[in-house]
Design brief:
The chain has about 100 residues and is mainly beta. The chain contains two helices and six strands. The chain has one domain. Its EC number is 1.5.1.36. Pfam families: Flavin_Reduct. InterPro entries: Flavin_Rdtase-like_dom, Split_barrel_FMN-bd.
């Protein structure tokens, strides 16, 4: 999951800005994670390990259902989702000790 401030990167990766497939995976945008996966700097979930459980065709897309085996969360930033043809921040509430 990308950080809420990474909408431009999300738009590039989704092909919304006209970048080529090679440019979407260019080294300046992504680094190798601890598990060897491509990682975006400042991503909300910079590292995870998952197993592909199912791949289901829905309309013109393939939906990959995965089982998350391990995940590392970044303590900074909020998430970013795509819903109803727009990107939206997923704001995290901070826990406050009373």
């Amino acid at each position: 999951m990308l950080n809420h401030e990474q909408e431009i990167m999300a738009r590039h990766f989704a092909g919304m800005t006209g970048v080529t497939m090679e440019e979407r995976f260019c080294p300046q945008r992504l680094a190798a994670g601890r598990l060897g996966q491509p990682v975006a700097e400042k991503a909300r979930w910079p590292a995870s390990k998952a197993r592909l459980a199912r791949c289901k065709p829905i309309g013109t897309h393939l939906v990959y259902l995965v089982e998350i085996r391990n995940i590392t969360l970044s303590p900074q930033g909020h998430g970013l989702i795509y819903f109803k043809r727009r990107f939206h921040p997923v704001m995290m509430e901070m826990e406050v000790a009373v």
